[in-house]
Design goal:
Blueprint (H helix, E strand, L loop, with lengths): L2 H17 L5 H9 L8 H24 L6 H18 L2 H16 L2 H31 L7
């Protein structure tokens, strides 16, 4: 497959991720616009950091969900951090599930928090798989090493 065809596939996949509401177009394209010759893998590095940080926050949320009594204010704080991180990379579905989780925290609904956290993790993992494919395709197309 030639490079131009691969680049079209990359553009199509980005459009698909945006149309399926995995990614916010404005936020994600802004991140891509920050890439240049001195930092050609900027977006992939930011996303990698997001997933590393997510793992840490998920552990804290999981511990807080299992604490007795459940500290809804602390859960809300952790999810607020995660929602902000999600927004910074344009992860719309993840961000929306974070909002649901926060609403259950405000209502003091423990069961709702558990269910919402499962949905947050599901959307988080679904986006991760999509972005791994996207970045792999970008590398194949040579878009991470612009000349």
């Amino acid at each position: 497959m030639d490079r131009n065809q691969l680049r079209r596939q990359v553009a199509h996949m980005r459009s698909s991720l945006i149309e399926q509401h995995y990614l916010d177009q404005q936020q994600f394209v802004q991140l891509e616009d920050l890439e240049d010759d001195s930092n050609p893998n900027f977006v992939e590095e930011i996303v990698t950091l997001f997933y590393k940080d997510s793992s840490r926050l998920f552990q804290k949320i999981d511990q807080a969900l299992h604490s007795v009594p459940m500290d809804f204010a602390r859960l809300d704080d952790y999810m607020h951090q995660f929602k902000g991180s999600s927004s910074s990379i344009g992860a719309i579905k993840v961000k929306n599930e974070c909002t649901q989780f926060k609403e259950f925290c405000l209502a003091g609904n423990a069961e709702g928090c558990f269910r919402a956290f499962q949905r947050v993790k599901h959307e988080h993992e679904a986006l991760k798989r999509q972005l791994e494919t996207y970045f792999q395709l970008r590398r194949q197309a040579g878009m991470a090493q612009r000349s």
